[in-house]
Amino acid sequence: MTVSVGDRIPNLTLMRAAADGPQPVSTADFFANRRVALFSVPGAFTPTCSARHLPGFVEKADDLKAKGVDEIACTAVNDAFVLAAWARMGEAVDKVTMLADGNGEFVKALGLEMDGSKFGMGQRGKRFSMVVNNGVIEQLFVEEPGAFSVSSADYMLERL
Could you say which of 17, 38, 49, 153 is catalytic? Predict the structure, then answer.
């Protein structure tokens, strides 16, 4: 079952890409007492993710914060090392917190997993974005397969 607006984020452990290596992060702690703009990509270094999704959130980071977002985070079914390299390549360090969902447990708990096997990607997360306020989903934007319209930073900004 897919999560909805008003649902609490499931309590799991993700891995945060940090300068001194991957650090475990409890979602309960990460999303507590603040408003987070979270977006999910099917994979780091993939075409739409690298050319449009990540750059949009990097470019609009200050605008999102001006609208009451305390932190911007990205998750993908990749490991923390890949996400750290992608953050450096995408000039996202210090703008977007990378949260690795290496085994896909987070997207599965959200009901937002997808099967990318026909593309050689295995189980991944759908492309989506959400605003999480103190651990509760305030807004949720899930893309149709192959689309990139409702999960962008611009779309989120228009709704804040």
Answer: 49
pTM, to two decimals? 0.93
**Total domain count for the chain?**
1
Residues 124-158 pLDDT 10s: 789 999 999 999 999 999 999 888 889 999 999 99
The yes-or-no answer on residue 49 being catalytic is: yes
> Cβ–Cβ contacts within 10 Å for residue 47, how many?
9
Distance of CA 99 to the CA centre of its chain: 7
pLDDT above 70 as % of the chain? 97
Per the domain annotation, does 4 fall within a domain? no
CATH number at residue 82: 3.40.30.10
